[in-house]
Amino acid sequence: MSPSQARHPHRLTIAIFAIAVLTTAGIFSSLATARTTKQVVREAQNSSLGKTVLTANNGLTLYSLSVEKHGNFICKGSCLKDWFPLVVAAGVRPTGPVALGTVKRPDGRRQVTFEGRPLYTFDGDSRKGQTNGEGIKDVGTWHAASP
Questions:
Q1: Helix (H) or strand (E) holding 112
Q2: pTM for this entry
């Protein structure tokens, strides 16, 4: 121990404590901002529509409702019997071949969005490549999501 340290032993204790606090704060700050990414959207050429569409990982076509954008949800309640929101867990950043986002649904789930529009699969599609939801008119019109 140096003569200075011998005269002021509390300085060493304070310095060690300060380093511990700053290191711990940095770790917690990093954990709080850490996000997991998960690929949830793919692209597929759709011959019936003659264009590329977005699909869920299982190959089913993804749709958006023309009047839903930026958290303005129309598809709620009985609508959800036919249209299934593409959701991710809180803290998960969805990825795919296009820029994706999320929006909080009225029920608290995080729904994946493309260009601000929530994405859904359709009950009437049971196989890859089907687009049975295309053009269905409701309060708005359902369309296959296309990059």
A1: strand 110-114
A2: 0.77
Buried b (16+ CB within 10 A) or exposed e, 86-115: bbbeeebebebeeebbbbebeeeebbbbbe
3-state secondary structure of 120: strand
Contacts of 59 (CB under 8 A, 6+ apart): 42, 44, 127, 128, 129
| Nearby residues of 75 by Cβ (< 8 Å), 6 or more positions away | 65, 68, 83, 85, 118, 120
pLDDT tens, 77-118? 999 999 999 999 999 999 999 999 999 999 999 999 999 999
The domain segmentation of the chain, as residue ranges, is 3-33, 36-144
